[in-house]
Amino acid sequence: MTIPFDLSLYLVTDEQLAGPRGVVEAVGRAIEGGVTLVQLRDPKGKGRAQVEIAAALLQILRPRGIPLIINDRVDVALAVGADGVHVGQSDIPAAMVRRMIGPDKILGLSVSYASELTAPDLSVVDYIGVGPIYATATKTNAAPPIGFDGLAALAAASPVPVVAIGGVKAEHVVPALAAGAAGLAIVSAIIAADDPAAAAADFSTRIARFRAT
Amino acid sequence: MTIPFDLSLYLVTDEQLAGPRGVVEAVGRAIEGGVTLVQLRDPKGKGRAQVEIAAALLQILRPRGIPLIINDRVDVALAVGADGVHVGQSDIPAAMVRRMIGPDKILGLSVSYASELTAPDLSVVDYIGVGPIYATATKTNAAPPIGFDGLAALAAASPVPVVAIGGVKAEHVVPALAAGAAGLAIVSAIIAADDPAAAAADFSTRIARFRAT
């Protein structure tokens, strides 16, 4: 049984964008606004620093039942007992990650092209992150933007839930959910906001409003 | 029971220094010259690339009984079933790594200062890598060079075997072993050599000659 998770408002961290307040404080404020899932993404961070940040995030997320997912570093996830791992196409293959983390942890995979929806990966992942919807400065070497049409095509083809990522802002809640996404993965629009709680609440409200109609 | 290992001639890989022939071919040639241990070190390499190189290295090392150790990425080591892990002071703490890899795998730790010889680390590691002996271009952000006097002081204080690393060349075999090192960790002097087998054989011969006297 996989740990229960809700992709609706999926916050992805960024050390640089969090600014001087740091990732842990930015996340602490964002979860007041209704974040449903958090991914620690720190591609330049060393292992020890990632372990320390992940442990601090678990302390604030566990009491609220918000799962913590670690980007790329399966070892960091195992070291702190995080709730899951998210890998990209150039990270350790999903099947190997699944063997390391066991059947219950959450496993996500980044997908930009239909050709990346392959059987070995899809049989072991719990969701896919689809994008980039728009070009973004957060991720270097990202694939070209796929827009909401690309999102809709991948969401229709995917047997697992899809979260939209890449330059997504509050005004994109309706087109993303209408395209079939189960949620939105947000980096800068929340983590770099002056008021991360208000920014997250804006997304939450729009998501709830879309689902009520 | 820890996997048996011999620190005498410990080859550390470097993607850049291996040049166009690549790390796997360079290692394949070096082991003809008597390398006793290999560490895959690829701090800029993504997880999938590291898994592929590690798997290819295991194919050539296993038949010869030469252990393969992975630098930093415990997850890469677990994914391919490598023989051990080597971590630095800013990587995942040694005690956490030991819990992940279990009691039998080889665990090494980089140490530059006596203050880094701490009980929690030393109770779980099988050897320490001491250096840099000389300044080196291979590792950015390295500590200042400690020389053979620094090596001797740390070797005397360490309860586990010590391998000397950092700018070590064939002419340093005698002073390194005389300072109490169990072996030498070599990057450029072998991996960047025109003839890695001959370069490794030169080290091996000098090590054997020192021990015979």
UniProtKB/TrEMBL annotation, chains A, B:
Pathway named in the protein's UniProt entry: Cofactor biosynthesis; thiamine diphosphate biosynthesis; thiamine phosphate from 4-amino-2-methyl-5-diphosphomethylpyrimidine and 4-methyl-5-(2-phosphoethyl)-thiazole: step 1/1
Annotated Mg(2+) binding sites: D72, D91
Record-listed E.C. numbers: 2.5.1.3
Stretches of the chain forming a coiled coil according to its record: none
Cofactor binding annotation: Binds 1 Mg(2+) ion per subunit.
Gene Ontology biological-process annotations: thiamine biosynthetic process; thiamine diphosphate biosynthetic process
Domain Thiamine phosphate synthase/TenI: 9-190
Superkingdom field: Bacteria
Binding residue positions for 2-[(2R,5Z)-2-carboxy-4-methylthiazol-5(2H)-ylidene]ethyl phosphate: T136, A137, T138, G167, V187, S188
InterPro entries reported for this sequence: Aldolase_TIM, ThiamineP_synth_sf, ThiamineP_synth_TenI, TMP_synthase
Protein name stated in the entry: Thiamine-phosphate synthase
Annotated organism of origin: Kaistia soli DSM 19436
Source species taxonomy: Bacteria, Pseudomonadati, Pseudomonadota, Alphaproteobacteria, Hyphomicrobiales
